[in-house]
Specification:
Blueprint: E1 2-4, E2 11-13, E3 25-27, E4 33-37, E5 40-44, E6 52-56, E7 58-63, E8 66-70, E9 76-81, E10 89-93, E11 99-104, E12 111-116, E13 122-127, E14 138-140, E15 150-153, E16 159-164, E17 171-176, E18 182-186, E19 192-195, E20 201-208, E21 211-218, E22 226-232
Antiparallel strand pairs: 1-2, 3-4, 4-5, 5-6, 7-8, 8-9, 9-10, 11-12, 12-13, 13-14, 15-16, 16-17, 17-18, 19-20, 20-21, 21-22
Length: 258
């Protein structure tokens, strides 16, 4: 797991376990990290010397002082205090035959849920921290073979960037979370895309013949991305997580990195 500073271009390891099978790493605005490996969820607090094993599940993320994640059967959105002082409880469920995916918005105010029914139709809605719906729900195009596309929320408004390497969602699109209107940005197969912290640009991961590249582009149609990293066969297009810029750290060894 690596971090890239969008201002300086410096990229360096985050000190987290390598995600060799699927990227499932998320961070809080105040420095907590969570990830799952083979459906085992782990967390790390800013001052922790060791990682803590928590529960079984997927896509762990933080909202307020809580950890939220999808249950092992992918039918419940679970929530528990991140200090592990209480047992997890379900705050949102879907019927038998449905499958959930979830993420927390960049400012940690909303939970974005994708609900795929038994016919493969995918619906997106926002929840508050207690699991109460905030939006009526809009439909999302599926990725290749009916899979969930990658979806990332705008920092300040209910707009989402939808990306996929194939299927109906191939490329990059912007989805209005209130009207359901979908506007294409790029038809280039894209493994993942997220908004930058100011919401004006997109960071994306896209395939090339020589491996994946990480690019930065305006959130407008047909913009050419600025390549930040790659191409490399070691860049995993499953994962892309915007995180706040940490406090400055002295470059004690003068290698150009904090």
């Amino acid at each position: 797991v690596w971090t890239i500073d969008l201002a300086s271009g410096i990229h360096q390891p985050a000190g987290l376990p390598a995600q060799t099978e699927v990227f499932d790493v998320h961070s809080s605005r105040d420095g907590w990290w969570s990830w799952s490996t083979r459906a085992v969820i782990w967390i790390r607090s800013p001052d922790a010397e060791e990682d803590t094993r928590v529960q079984m599940g997927f896509t762990p993320d933080f909202i307020d002082d809580s950890l939220v994640y999808v249950s092992p059967d992918r039918r419940d959105l679970m929530k528990m205090p991140r200090d592990l002082s209480e047992l997890p409880v379900s705050i949102f469920s879907v019927p038998v035959g449905h499958e959930l995916a979830a993420s927390v918005s960049p400012l940690e105010r909303e939970i974005v849920v994708l609900d795929r029914d038994e016919d493969g139709t995918i619906r997106l809605l926002e929840l508050d921290a207690e699991g109460n719906p905030l939006t009526p729900g809009v439909f999302v195009p599926e990725a290749l073979d009916g899979a969930f596309p990658k979806v990332s929320r705008h920092p300040f408004e209910p707009t989402y960037v939808v990306s996929a390497t194939g299927g109906v969602a191939r490329g990059i699109s912007l989805l209005d979370g209130e009207t359901g209107v979908l506007d294409g940005i790029s038809e280039t197969p894209t493994g993942n895309a997220v908004f930058t912290p100011d919401g004006r640009s997109l960071v994306s991961i896209a395939p090339t013949p020589y491996g994946n590249v990480v690019g930065l582009q305006p959130a407008v149609p047909d913009a050419d991305p600025l390549i930040l990293l790659g191409p490399s066969p070691f860049i995993n297009d499953d994962g892309l997580e915007p995180v706040p810029v940490p406090p400055p750290v002295p470059d004690t060894d003068s290698d150009g990195r904090p």
